[in-house]
Amino acid sequence: MSISDRLGGLHYKWIVLSVTTIGALMAAIDGNIVMLALPDMMASLHADLVQMTWVIMSYILISTVILLTLGRMADMLGRVRMYNLGFVTFTVGSVLCGISRSATELILFRMVQGAGGAMMVVNSAALLTEVFPPNERGKALGINGITFSAGGVLGPVLGGFILSAASWRWIFFINVPIGILGTAWGYKVLREMSPRVKGERFDALGALAFSLGLLALLAALTLGIEAGWTSAPILGLFALFFAMVLLFVWRERRAANPVLDFSLFRNRVYGFSTLAAMMQSLAMFAVNFLIVFYLQAVRGYSPLRAALLLIPLPIVMAIVAPISGSLADRIGARIPATVGVLIQALALFGFTFLKPDTPYQAIALGLALMGLGGGMFFSPNTSAAMNAAPNNRLGIASAALATLRQTGMVTSLALAMAVAAASLPRDDMMKLFIGTDVAMGSSSMQSFVVGMHGAFVVSLALSLLAALFSVVRGKEDRKARAA
After folding, report:
1. How far apart are CA 154 and CA 25, in angstroms?
2. Does residue 456 form part of some domain?
3. Residue 198 lies in a domain
4. How does residue 430 score in pLDDT terms, banded at 50, 70 and 90?
5. Cα dist. 342→230, 282, 330, 405, 427 in Å?
6. For residue 337, is it within any domain?
7. 48 burial class (0-12, 13-18, 19+ CB within 10 angstroms)?
8. Are 238 and 293 in a shared domain?
9. Of 133, 254, 265, 456, which cross-links 351 as Cys (Cβ 3.0–4.6 Å)?
């Protein structure tokens, strides 16, 4: 008897969607809760601003540098096996984060979480692409996107209640029951759909060169704020990055079974869809961080109140994501995705006028526009990229897309921090972050708001570049989508 029969005739594609949405929910909740809890974690662990930045960075760094490696391994060893292992690893990492005794331990255990998250991220889109026909993939990815948005609502609200009633450690422990449920469900119902790639060897040298190069770049971008861009260690990291890029390109052009199949980028739709995703992430990821920082440190709001004020963004995104995905199935991704990122650019333009006493209605409008634009962009853009990838390279295609997107995310935060921090002394930044200098009109608060304006201007320019990449991707193969 098939899995679908045992589950009352439920089609297998919807079973797969149910598993991937649990993983998306867990990842979305974790990301939003951690951002909200940074001030409490800083005080409890006697940490500084740089260490708390690395609590966010470490997760993204490790997941970014191993995505391509995991995507290649998933094509070779099985996507379901890799996805289920990701659930286990993420859950174990959450427990370890919850029992951390220092900022150093927390950063290391966030890397464990990041490895588990990467295993899920790299296979989620590939699994959905395997089981949904081309004319339904946008809808499926849109539904999956609702879960990210639901996590965006539930995460801050749940985090606000947890931080009001208990220790920050419970923001990690909350992942455990979700992780256990997802692991059990995945092992019970998922099955491999595509045959494993046989007779190929894993390109260890190429994977090592890519991972070391990307790690060096991201480390330079994040540490340069503190150490100085012209200091010897930072220049050394940039030099290592360029050396590893050269080695990676040289190796991949000669390897029989490369980690990254450059032929994927010969497809105009796939290539520009991935570039648009990277630019959109580079423009938008830091916005949530800046708004959370603004509401708590500048306006002096509690974590719960700040969480509730953020809700317009994920709610609007949850409503729009499946609609835009279905629309893309009918007319293609170029129009909805491009309009979406332009709407986000409009929101960023509005945020450049943010002041310490800006009415909340104006902030809510900006957040709603961010959600509208994000919902219109993400599902169509992801669907276009995955539709353009060959079935036997879905794992590496998904990994390359996720790698570029997450590279944009981590670079976005580093860039925003650098621009904002340039407007005020480090001591003032620390006072703001731990909430000791949030009086309306204080000099440090005024300086930070000015710094935020600069960061939003940079994000605005990057979002326009993302719109350009989205436009020039060209039209997708309508016959393939309708097949």
Report:
1. 9
2. yes
3. no
4. low
5. 35, 14, 21, 18, 37
6. yes
7. middle
8. no
9. 456
Identify whether the C-beta of residue 325 lies closer than 8 Å to the C-beta of residue 337. Answer: no
CB neighbour class for 380 (10 Å; exposed up to 12, middle 13-18, buried from 19): buried
- Residue 107 identity: I
In this structure, are 470 and 345 located in the same domain?
yes
33 CB-near residues (< 8 Å, 6+ apart): 155, 156, 158, 159, 162, 171, 174
Q: Are residues 346 and 381 part of one domain?
A: yes
pLDDT in tens, 79-129: 788 888 888 999 999 999 999 999 899 999 999 998 888 888 777 777 877
Q: Tokens 């890029």 identify what position?
A: 245
Is the CA virtual torsion 111, 117, 121, 122 positive or negative?
positive
- Do 177 and 207 lie in one domain? The reply is no
Question: Backbone phi, then psi, for 259, in 5-degree steps?
Answer: -65, -45
Task: Indicate if the pLDDT at residue 289 is higher than 70.
Answer: yes
The structural domain count of the chain equals 2
How many C-beta atoms lie closer than 10 Å to residue 62's C-beta? 22
| Judgement on whether residues 186 and 285 belong to the same structural domain of the protein | yes
Q: Of 63-72, 242-251, 297-306, 424-433, which range is least confident?
A: 424-433
In a shared domain, residues 422 and 297: yes
Co-location of 266 and 247 in the same domain: no
d(CA 277, CA 379) in angstroms, rounded, equals: 11
pLDDT, tens digit (0-9, with 9 covering 90-100), for 3-59: 444 444 457 788 888 788 777 777 777 766 787 787 778 778 887 666 777 888 788
Structural tokens at position 108? 């290391």
pTM: predicted TM-score of the whole model, two decimal places: 0.74
Residue 381 tokens read as: 């853009």
Distance CA 316, CA 313 (A): 6
Cα torsion angle, 188, 192, 197, 198, sign: positive
Residue 314 belongs to some domain of the structure: yes
Q: Which residue range(s) make up the domain with 307?
A: 8-191+259-482
